[in-house]
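Appendix B. Raw example, untouched.
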Amino acid sequence: MDLKIDSRNVGMTPRWKQEIQDRITTLQTEYDNITHARITLTKNPHHKKGDDNAEALIVLNLPPRHTVTARKEAKSFEEAIRSAFKAATTEIKKFREKPVSQKPVKPEEP
């Protein structure tokens, strides 16, 4: 699996990076078909935004061509990371529960 961890407007701490790597490892063992993961932590510089200025964005690619995206904001990056991974896990579960679509059947012509 290809993994990219980035940060914007904030320095990446080793603790955040380790938590992200641990959670991705857990997701990969549970759902073994994740091909690419990109996690971006962003600090919103706008003072009028309020207390929720820590954002975690998770983008996961699953075969054949499906993308799962989760974006959460919180007061701290730890909270944002936890809630974003929880949302991403829920989305993966929903995707896996969907029945595989079959080819559309053309109606018979008279």
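End of appendix B.
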